[in-house]
């Protein structure tokens, strides 16, 4: 899982709740029914979320997700890359297929380096 990542993931220290729904299965649009998720980490290429729902992990299934970070609406579509069971939830890794500008801005805000401002005095 980790070794295949193209960009660094940023763990979210605050609970970020959102929704997920099946976007397409075998190239057919499927559902308008949303389920609640908790987003756990994000990067430009993927994210991890948890849900009570059990989705199959297959490239034929795409999911769409909506959530907010820093007041920015994040909308993305992705495929499930992996799944694991944790107590009452399932945890999923998502490979992002498309994302709105809000998501890109949220990731940029979270992953930018922390610069220390100094007065120049020793």
Written account of the structure:
- The protein has 122 residues and is mainly beta.
- It has one domain: Beta Barrel (Thrombin, subunit H).
- 9% of the residues lie in helices and 55% in strands.
- The protein is built from 1 helix and 7 strands, in the order E-E-E-E-E-E-E-H.
- Strands 1-3-4-7-6-5 form a 6-stranded antiparallel beta barrel.
- The radius of gyration is 16 Å and the shape is globular.
- The N and C termini lie far apart (45 Å).
Helix share, percent = under 10%
Oligomer: single chain
Beta content comes to over 45%
Shape: globular
Number of strands: 7
Biggest sheet details? 6 strands, antiparallel, barrel
DSSP summary: helix tally: 1
The Cα radius of gyration reads: 16 Å
- Low-pLDDT residue spans: 115-122
Order of helices and strands: EEEEEEEH
- How confident overall, as mean pLDDT? 85
CATH H level, superfamily name: predicted glycosyltransferase like domains
CATH fold field value: Thrombin, subunit H
Kindly report how far apart the N and C termini lie.
45 Å
What is the CATH architecture annotation?
Answer: Beta Barrel
Number of domains: 1
Which structural class is indicated by helix and strand composition? mainly beta
